[in-house]
Structure formats: C-alpha cells, structure tokens
Design brief:
Elements lengths: L3 H32 L11 H5 L2 E8 L7 E2 H15 L2 E14 L2 E14 L2 E16 L2 E16 L2
Parallel strand pairs: 1-6
Antiparallel strand pairs: 1-2, 3-4, 4-5, 5-6
Pfam families: SnoaL_4
InterPro entries: NTF2-like_dom_sf, SnoaL-like
Protein name: SnoaL-like domain-containing protein
C-alpha cells in the first residue's frame, strides 16, 4: 500500500501535468484568436501579442512556398503580410494531442481555416505541429508548423 505522502505527490504531479496541457491548449487557441478577424477591423490585429507567443528564437512555418520564419522579427513580418493577404480569416482548432516532458512539450492539433483572398472565399484543413517551452511568462511556442492537407475555393 502506498503512503499518503506518495498519493499526494502523485496527485500533485498529475495536476501539474493537466495544468500544463491546458495551458498549451490555451496558447494554441490564443494564437488562432489573435490571427482571426476582418469583420470588425484587421485580421492579425495585435502583432505584439502574436509575436509574444514565441520564444525569441522560435520558428513559425505556415507556408510551404516560403522558408520558415525564425525569430521575432521574421515572425512579425509574416503576420504583417498575412494581415494584407488574408484580410478576413477564422480558425477552428480541435483534437489536441499534447505531451508534456518537464519544461518542454510537443503537440498536434487538427485545424480548419476559412479565409478570403483575392475576392474569393477559401477553406483549408490540416494540422499544426508544435514544440513548446515553459518560460517565466508561461508556455511559449518554440516551433509552430502547419501541415496543410487540403484547400479549396468556396466561391
């Protein structure tokens, strides 16, 4: 039989892991919320808040036709481009698979994005693969990579 101290320690470890998983899910959701917009102002409206989701040398890779963005300056420039190239966008995020290992974690999320570009409405589906680090400011992306499985024009 395990001691009360052992059971309490195990419960504390499980609670910490659950809090970490939830914090990573919230980080991914915050990314999508900060990207979305266009119906009452710009998409990607708060560049500072978006960039702050990454560690300073983080990687952001959402476009297979462009090299990955590395570091805050390149990530900010990408969001500024997206503001004009996708003036209206809405994301959904689902099916989180999060694995925490101490102060690092990995995760995969399925996603659907609806957006307008060049006068047409589009949809794209795929997944995001993330790597994360615990920082003094909470969990942050070290890498966030989109793997787009399918896209189509809706109109």
């Amino acid at each position: 039989m395990t001691s009360v101290e052992d059971r309490v320690r195990l419960l504390e470890e499980q609670l910490t892991e659950l809090r970490d998983v939830r914090a990573i899910e919230e980080l991914a959701a915050r990314y999508h919320s900060l990207c979305d917009g266009g119906w009452a102002g710009d998409s990607h409206p708060d560049l500072d808040a978006l960039v702050a989701l990454w560690v300073p040398d983080g990687v952001y890779d959402i476009n297979a036709a462009r090299p990955p963005c590395r570091g805050h300056d390149e990530i900010r420039a990408q969001f500024l481009r997206l503001r004009s190239s996708m003036p209206w966008i809405l994301h959904t995020l689902m099916n989180p698979e999060v694995e925490v290992r101490g102060d690092t974690a990995t995760a995969r999320f399925k996603a659907v994005a609806y957006y307008r570009r060049g006068g047409g409405s589009h949809v794209v589906v795929g997944s995001y693969d993330g790597a994360f680090a615990r920082t003094p400011d909470g969990w942050r992306f070290t890498s966030w990579v989109a793997d787009l499985a399918h896209g189509d024009v809706l109109s």
